[in-house]
């Protein structure tokens, strides 16, 4: 089965037990399907495959749990108290479609479901399961996770490096670490790959926010300028930000640890770089 | 060390790693200290002690995790989109003291921290750790947890039994089940005790909401009537609700499974009943 199909199937399985109350039970799949590019679970499964993927049930559950956290963060970030967004992925945001209380509860429920999904799959490998719970929690909460990243925007003075690493980097670091853990490998050597992909993604997102139209992204643009958030394009210009991203992705490729699937994973990052920049990231000799 | 001291110490230990960003790092302890009666973690530790409490580190972490989820639910329930409460436990609610974005993120972070706390403590007993994660997730999310309970209030037609069991009962069921799991016992026989204490607590809360003043409860009163929520006092009258609660607590005591600490636990529920009603619950012969 393709990685794409595994992710969609795992997400469907994770959501299946939520049958009531009716509106909440409808709001959850609304927030998760149809998805975006599913970048984070794709990276997770790619790393798991590169490490041998000896427990595909567990890596599928890990991939679903990571995407559930990402979807939860989108639902909460779209709330009136944050971005006050009307649209997301080309349709009404959850609070516009269902109400603000249901959006808060849908986000909460998706966070909880993420941990539930790991615990249900971990029966035969409890040590890996607990390491997955711990890693996902660290990269979701505070001080190192996306909650902390979002909360930096409430500070008068932002620690930019902590901000970016937590706001965007955290779930990419979770992706590579959780991929390794799912397959029984040490997650430490995989952190840098996640961090660098996260950095590249942040710069790509800054470029998109600055350059594209709302019709192209499916969500409101110019949000960074409107909310005075730090942005690589404002700092480096368009050409500078593009070159910066290219460098980061080349570094990502050279950071891939020795493993059976190393070459395939390098190809995947290169393809990803091509999609983000229109140019291939070259692998250093 | 007393149960009370164990709970406060475990909560402090759980929150210690959150050092930034500054406002979020301050909002989390603000939401957790000083606490209310800490009823749920007290029940959890009492059940763990009744079962032998052979891994107090794990039962302490479980107790903290359960209280963190309870605190998270209070922060989110107080938000303008729900109760729009100005005060809680005699001081400003988190969104009034810190802002609405920080209240959303504080709730999210506390949920995540709850699962993190279990995973960090479970090293030597990974099977129990995963069962704790799973139980806490089930009683927090949907369809059986407090998120589902709150979401029932967004429905036109409420399933009253599902509503009460999820909204108030869920974390009491979590308390008894998690207490048993922490000590390596089967959680199934403990579910009824949690469910009955939860029912009694709901009736007591209905009585408080109907009868007490805001100064006495430290939070706005008359919220059930204002939000048209189902309430036992409206259904049975004050005397009827009081008698109902008394019956439920007697049933709770008779449901306690055979275990080394059975007698002590029965005393504890009796004391709890006396506090709630002013009269002792009698144990059926």
Automatic annotation (TrEMBL), chains A, B:
Q: Which UniProt keyword terms apply here?
A: Carotenoid biosynthesis, Chlorophyll biosynthesis, Isoprene biosynthesis, Magnesium, Metal-binding, Photosynthesis, Transferase
| Task of the protein | Catalyzes the condensation of farnesyl diphosphate (FPP) and isopentenyl diphosphate (IPP) to yield geranylgeranyl diphosphate (GGPP) needed for biosynthesis of carotenoids and diterpenes.
| Source organism of this protein record | Stagnihabitans tardus
What reaction is this protein's catalytic activity? isopentenyl diphosphate + (2E,6E)-farnesyl diphosphate = (2E,6E,10E)-geranylgeranyl diphosphate + diphosphate
Q: What class of enzyme is it?
A: transferase
- What is the official name of this protein in its record? Geranylgeranyl diphosphate synthase
Similarity comment: Belongs to the FPP/GGPP synthase family.
- Domain of life of the organism in this record? Bacteria
Enzyme Commission number, as recorded: 2.5.1.29
